[in-house]
Task: structure prediction
Amino acid sequence: MPPLAAFPKGFFDAIVERRMTVFQWIDHAGDLELDGAELYPKFLDSFDSAYLKKVRSAASSRGLELPMFCNSPDFTQPDPADRKKEVERTREMFRVTAELGGKFCRVLSGQNRPGLDAEEALGWVIGALASLVRDAEAAGVVLVIENHYKDGLWLYPEFAQSHARYLAILHAVDSPWLRVQYDPSNAIVAGEDQYDLLERVLPRVATVQASDRYVEGGTVEDLRRLSADPQHGYAPFLKHGVIGHGLNDYDRIFRTLAGSGWDGWVSIEDGDGGTIEEGMANLRDSAAFLRTKLAQHFGPDARETGA
Result:
């Protein structure tokens, strides 16, 4: 049965701004009876080993692992010195991931800045990731590149938001230490087919970020016809909701993953709401839905039922 974690999307700003501490987030995750909680660099007060030990201990006391460190490297910065710093910082995040007990460090390509030469920027990203896979192996940490939309602290969307660029990076850096974090909703945001992407990346999927989107006042075809705003990207009628209530067919997704023998982590990306209580209620609903679907497709009765 794939283990279940959560990333606090709905609490992201609160944690970054310290209106909620990382320890409070861990407590909330523990209340949800999850297997793990995911962290982000700006959630932490320090990268010092003693502090990281306290964070890991807090998670352990609630029965949680910290499997994924959601790093957001920006490898499309035009200045070579800035890109070099980003590579060095990412190496440091491998240590942080390992000291937290994690096995996966999320990576991105970088921001799709106006005026970038796409081929040149693609080369920067590939070069950066290719230079990091040996360091990841040495740290015992797998890089997982997400088909992402936009980091919460970035000005511009993900450079590799399109499947063409995303797949080009994966094909160029063909290493067991660079694998896939698959997010079906981000494929929808990109105006592309989430199931087609899954089939293409299936052999390299390490982790799955479960989220959901729905349209309100528009259609998916409208979304595909739109040109995303270079800063914000989201169509106004595309909403983020409780998992199982949106556009993603998780029966189809989990059936495909189970059929391939996949057994990695699933992470909830939810928690949106006007208050912490509302966000937690949404997380509980998402967790309950995913537990049911995971049991259906990966549980001991899955083969007998043909799920």
